[in-house]
Structures are given as C-alpha cells and as structure tokens.
C-alpha cells in the first residue's frame, strides 16, 4: 500500500461497525472522489474530547486473571492508538466504534475526583488497591488539559488510600510531587508498558505514545524517587516484538525497574479485524506470518476468551515465550523484590463515625 494511503498518527486504519447499533456509517468511493476533485479533506483525522457524567467511577474487576480487584478510568477511548489494545471493544458500549473512533473520540469524566472521594467516604468501603488505567491510559494526551488523574492522586493521598498506576506516557513524571508523598507511605506502585526498544516498531504499533527513550527515562525517574516500578512487556506479539524479551528485560533492570511481567497478544472482538487490516497495510511482507503465529498461540484463532489461557497463550510458540521470560527474570531480577502496597493507613468511614460517637450512641 502506498505511504499516502496510511492514516498517519493513528493505529487503526479503519472504523468497524458497532455490533450494538442497527445502523453503520461508511465512507463511499463516490464521496471520496468528490472530495478529491473539490480539493477537500474527506476525513480531518482530528481528536475530539466529549465530556460524560457517569454515576460511579470505581469498577470492581471480576476477571480472575487480570491481577487487580478495583480499577478506575478517568477517560474512555485512548488517543495513544495502540493497535492491539484490548480496551477498544469497550468503546462500543458508549455507541462508538472500536477502530478510529476509539482513538479520536475521547470521553472525559471530569467528575472523577468527586466520585472517587464519594467512594472512599462511603460507609462500607474497605481499602483495596484501586488501579488507575485498568482499561484506558490515565496519562494519555487528554490528561495534559484536564488534569483529572492528578486530582485523583491527591484524593488518594488525602485519604491515605493505596493506588496503582498503569501507563506508557512520560506525563506521569509531572505528578512526582504527589507520587513521592504516596510512596513515602507505601501507597503507590507504577506499571510502565514498554513493548519494544525499536522506535520504528513503536511508531506503527503505538503511534501517539511516549518514545522508548522517554519511557525508559520515566522508569528511571520514578525509581530514583522511591516509586516501585514494574515494566509490562505487554503484549508480546509473535513476529513483531517477541525477539526483544531479553533486551527489554535488561533495559528495564538497568533503568531501575524491580520486576517485569508480560501477556501474549489476543485479538478479541472487533480487534481481530482492525489488527488484520492494520498489519496488511503497515507490514504486508510479514502479515500472514504474524497472524498465523498469533493463531498458533490461541488454538487456531486470533481470539481466546478462556480465563486460563487468554493472556498466557498455549502451544509451542507461547511455551517458548514463557521460557524466554523465565530466563529474563532469572538473569535480571532474581535479586529484586517488589514491595507490597500498604492499605492499613486508610481509616474506613464507619470506624471514623464510631470514634465520633460516644456512650450508647456507639451501638448504632
């Protein structure tokens, strides 16, 4: 495919039909030809921020293989545009598409700090680590303008409540002042996603994320400031970044990370179609090889919804990846230990209410 036909700065190269909607929108060839003749842009490829007003912000995670109990997402959709992102399908619940819509229509939850404080003040809430970015990145470009994540971190500090962060954006360093205070109380940990050491790969795989150099610097700066960092080599995509496991692990260790983790790519729901279209346009010479190797990790399919195998994969290729990760951990992290987050400093509201009462009123 010619270079000019690639939508630059975006991961997805198409929109796909929302399975929940009766009607769909398509760009017809006659309209495109009209725009060409008139010298007009058929698609301006702009990002729009749309304010939404959910009633709650903290989500209970019931999936047994995700590794978190609660999450919250200040934004829905993600301008980073990572082509493999499992969160793309969630945009369909909001009435949008999992392809370009996911990257260009960003839903902003401006009330998130107030909703979080309401949750932490609720009578029966007990401290469990709440992870920022369980679905979409809390430090994506919208955060520069809205600063919702920063305000939420202040709420966690105010109530001495444990919080985890997952991001691939160096913008997290803006909040070092708050993060340092949380770290002194053992209330925070960070997960930085780094999927490749190649800028060429990063640009096509994750077009609007921080550069690899800046991400490694972020790991280093967080570590130097006492924030424990885990590097997520996730997902590993056979034929694209699977050969980088050892070099990624070494780079993570050299920049101060205390641990590494990984997942095997799975292309669930609409992502299979989006990814297939993307790789045939951006990496046509290896598209079939990559797609077949992904299928080999999931019983002959691009997707796997089984909790046991969906993020671990199965088969010979997945086994090789697990062996490589085992070697990486033994070689670079055998002397490291990731600290536990302390949830004991948070005082449940029902206990505070009891302390405020006296005499027989404490019975109620």
From TrEMBL:
Residues 64-301 form the Radical SAM core domain. The keyword Magnesium does not apply. Coiled coil: none annotated. Pfam families: Radical_SAM. The keyword Chaperone does not apply. It comes from the Bacteria. NCBIfam families: rSAM_PA0069 (NF033668). This is PA0069 family radical SAM protein. The lineage of its organism: Bacteria, Pseudomonadati, Bacteroidota, Flavobacteriia, Flavobacteriales.
